[in-house]
Amino acid sequence: MNPLILDGKTLSKDIERQLALRTQALLQHAPGRTPILATILVGSDPASATYVKMKGNACRRIGMDSRSIELPEHTTTAELTAIINELNTDPNVHGILLQHPVPHHIDERQCFDAIALEKDVDGVTCLGFGRMAMGSDAYGSATPAGIMALLKHYEIPLRGKHAVVLGRSPILGKPMSAMLLNEDCTVTICHSRTSNLQEHIRMADILVAAVGKPAFVQKEWIREDSIIVDAGYHPGGIGDVHPDAYGISSAYTPVPGGVGPMTISTLMSQTVSAAEKALGIIQ
Question: DSSP secondary-structure letter at 119?
Fold first, then answer.
């Protein structure tokens, strides 16, 4: 039996069509108040610039606007937080995205936490993470929230399942674990200091690989009929899981075309929601 392909590319297109309708309805309710996502790029990292461009293109596809702010490499933490605070108080900006990573001399966590909760559409603030983890209203970190939307769309059972999250980053592994726990999974978090890593992975009903190493997880580590969510992306279209492992799973996210498109569509969806809340369309 062939494994089910969790097609994020097709689902994200469906989500964008729905978002375009919501944007049109918003403009009818408040003419001229186009939802705006402000993106901040510090430095000249080519990959980061590409990601920001992709997000701007997604905004245009659904009828939103993007405000691109490009800052030099030598920007200080104080200068960056001052710009974020200006965006916080701008009523025309509904979402703020600070592209990760920033140059090493900047305190990224301080800058993330400067983003107002109601504009934290990328789910990067400590306050937003805490509220999400406690089951309160907050925008989830975009990649984990996109993964959850993908699992829900394909009706993947979560309650009682053993989920293994490989990676503990504050914008992927940690929020992913909290979201799965909130859906009644039993969650194991693995990382670079985990002993007997292969044994933990072999126990997974659901594996979320977010380790940042190409083809790191081997076929021999995977239990047959498990579900593989590959959140990695590396040159040549390689994820964090070796492609040979996909064939023994019951379902998997392809690379590319799985998690990546869902990250962007989730960011767009949360920005539209923020605009709807700001304009009183939804509570």
Answer: G
CATH number at residue 212: 3.40.50.720
Burial class (CB in 10 A: 0-12, 13-18, 19+), 196: exposed
Residues in the chain: 283
- Using one digit for the tens of pLDDT, what is the confidence trace for 186-209? 999 999 999 999 999 999 999 999
| DSSP character at residue 67 | E
Q: Name the pTM for this structure.
A: 0.96
Over the Cα atoms of the chain, what is R_g? 19
Task: Let me know whether 156 and 202 are in one domain.
Answer: yes
The amino acid at 262: M
User: Is 55 known to be catalytic?
Assistant: yes
254 and 174 in a single domain? The answer is yes
Amino acid identity of 69? I
- Neighbouring CB atoms inside 10 A of 160's CB total 10
Contact predicate 144/176, CB 8 Å: yes
Given the residues 99, 161, 174, 205, the one annotated as active site: 99
Q: Which of 7, 119, 120, 122 is catalytic?
A: 122
Q: What is the domain range of residue 70?
A: 30-118
